[in-house]
Amino acid sequence: TQLLEQSPQFLSIQEGENLTVYCNSSSVFSSLQWYRQEPGEGPVLLVTVVTGGEVKKLKRLTFQFGDARKDSSLHITAAQPGDTGLYLCAGAATGGFKTIFGAGTRLFVKA
Amino acid sequence: DAGVTQSPTHLIKTRGQQVTLRCSPKSGHDTVSWYQQALGQGPQFIFQYYEEEERQRGNFPDRFSGHQFPNYSSELNVNALLLGDSALYLCASSLGTVNTEAFFGQGTRLTVV
């Protein structure tokens, strides 16, 4: 059974701090996506990483895909209250149609 | 360009009843996936439809069924509702090739009482 484990589950930090969220699996994924979800809304796609070792930057957010394509991380620099939300990683095994999600990391950034 | 739209946004049903949720995919997308998201959890894959057929299914009982229409829109049907079916139901659309990026609707909040 494929599983994506996210850590930490919950993170409460002050505005301006840096943080890293991790997404780990024992399975190999052809790609991984990171989403952000606000309460009562659907997830919004932030980025897709495809190549092992790939690093993508989206303003203050840096995403990395592990060399073996089994893990990924999301690093936020100088967090702002607007970054508050549920961060989800998701992926599908090579050739598969079923996308699985991690349980998410709930981030709260205090002003 | 309209994104993924779902209806209704909220729904309250009684245990044992049946419910139908609807989804219109993003323009140009031909694949629809349905997810169930319980409070505090990540979305759980229910099934995916492509070319009007169920392409893959998650670990959900037969009470959960679906349909895709020629215009790529989709319905999720749940029979014999249980209290545990209360959740946010999300629809995501994508292109037909595997492992492509999915775009989500705002979800339907189903409450079973």
Short account of what is shown:
The complex is a heterodimer of chains A (111) and B (113). With 111 residues, chain A is mainly beta. In chain A, 0% of the residues lie in helices and 55% in strands.
Structure description:
The complex is a heterodimer of chains A (111) and B (113). Chain A contains no helices and 11 strands. Chain A has strands at residues 5-7, 10-14, 19-24, 29-37, 44-49, 55-58, 61-65, 71-76, 85-93, 100-101, 105-110. In chain A, strands 2, 4, 5, 9, 10 and 11 form a 6-stranded mixed β-sheet that branches. Chain A starts with a strand and ends with a strand. The mean pLDDT of chain A is 92. Helix content of chain B is 0%, strand content 50%. Chain B is built from no helices and 11 strands. The termini of chain B are far apart. In chain B, 37% of the residues are buried. Chain A binds chain B through residues 6, 30-31, 33, 35, 40-45, 48, 88, 90, 92, 94-104, and chain B through 4, 33, 35, 41-45, 48, 50, 55-56, 58, 88, 90, 92, 98-99, 101-107, 109.
